[in-house]
Specification:
Strand content: under 5%
Number of strands: 0
Distance between the termini: 20 Å
Radius of gyration: 15 Å
Number of helices: 4
Number of domains: 1
């Protein structure tokens, strides 16, 4: 069994988020529905905060893992939005995307209240 599986999963998940955040999607025909983009942001960052939380609790033994996982997820989401604005000509930053990134990260509070982690 991998000793740092949550840390590895969180790292891969961050890489996937960065890749998808800077990829051009104009050449891909995806099925769409209303608010698809915002739901995607919410889910991606909710999963990121859960993976980070488990990595911090079970593998890295940090104090205040809940706060740190949420803040780090929000920081990554905000940094990516700035990066889309300043580093690309084909993507744009969105305040609403940043809000849904943060809402996804904050869903860890609900997860934490329902699932014991000790």
């Amino acid at each position: 069994m991998v000793k740092y599986r949550y840390t590895a999963l969180a790292t891969v998940w961050i890489g996937l988020i960065v890749y998808l955040s800077f990829r051009k999607f104009s050449e891909i025909a995806l099925p769409s529905f209303r608010f698809q983009d915002k739901i995607g942001h919410l889910v991606m960052y909710a999963l990121l905060s859960v993976l980070l939380f488990h990595a911090l609790v079970h593998e890295l033994r940090w104090t205040s893992p809940l706060t740190l996982a949420i803040l780090f997820s929000i920081l990554i989401g905000t940094a990516i939005e700035f990066g889309q604005h300043y580093l690309t000509t084909y993507r744009e930053a969105s305040l609403y995307d940043a809000i849904f990134n943060a809402l996804g990260a904050v869903t860890l509070l609900f997860y934490h209240s329902k699932i014991p982690y000790e």
